[in-house]
Amino acid sequence: MTKTLYLVRHAEASQSVSPDLVRPLVSNGMIDAARMGKHLASKMQGIDLILTSNAERTQMTAQVFCEQLGVDNEIVRVESALYESSPKHYLDAVNGLSEEVDSVMIVGHNPSISYFAEYLTHEEIGSMPTCGVVGMTFENLTWAEVSKKTGHMTFYDSPDGIMGIKI
């Protein structure tokens, strides 16, 4: 059985709002999230669950993705442990997933989301741009068995790489 994971760095957020937890997306971030969501809709076979941190910007990014993917926002689950966290917290979230879930998206923050993508794959990801997405699969593994270098990266997209997508 194949498990699929999409790691998303939240879209561009306001720098002028405090505290950090409540920073919303700026208009360019909303546009990038809509374009990326539409782009992903053509690539994805479906999504069972979306995990986000409790930050406003990750939840807004997830909401826009739901709209573009045509899925109900009830599949979004807020995990406060993903805010200001380490790749270990992301791994704990993945390892704790139900086996009924085959496809999951995590909307999170740099640098942890980028480090986590590199940890799971054999790829050098670097610093993911805002609204960047890394897709990966895990063959013949349960979520509890996902660990270092067990993922196969299927794509790495960014808003700059999909400029032709219209919303």
From TrEMBL:
Pfam families tied to this protein: His_Phos_1 (PF00300)
InterPro entries per UniProt: His_Pase_superF_clade-1, His_PPase_superfam
Protein name as it appears in the record: Phosphohistidine phosphatase
The organism of origin for this protein: Arcicella aurantiaca
